[in-house]
Write a structure and sequence with these properties.
GO terms for molecular function: ATP binding; ligase activity. Belongs to the ATP-dependent AMP-binding enzyme family. There is one protein chain. By secondary structure, the protein is α+β, with helices and mostly antiparallel strands. The chain has helices at about 20-30, 45-60; strands spanning about 35-40, 40-45. It has a domain at about 20-55. Strands 1-2 form a two-stranded antiparallel ribbon. A hairpin with a 2-residue loop joins strand 1 (about 35-40) and strand 2 (about 40-45). The termini are far apart.
Length: about 70
């Protein structure tokens, strides 16, 4: 009987950790003009969402807001 897919060794060809950042990058690349958010009359594309998130992250970083190094 063949090997179960979950038992295969992980490598770049069959495994990538899914993170929110990876998802956002990928969605903006693959579906830049698809709708990502609807709220009333507001409509954002994945490109819009990606750019807004990048601007927010940059602004937070400029104000020294980021990951905590406390243990």
């Amino acid at each position: 009987m063949g090997q179960d897919i979950d038992d295969l060794p992980k490598n770049a060809a069959n495994f990538t950790a899914l993170t929110l950042l990876w998802f956002l990058d990928r969605a903006a690349l693959v579906h830049p003009n698809k709708t990502s958010l609807l709220h009333g009359s507001l409509r954002y594309t994945w490109r819009d969402t990606y750019n807004r998130c990048r601007r927010l992250a940059s602004s937070l970083s400029k104000h020294s807001i980021g990951l905590s190094s406390t243990k």
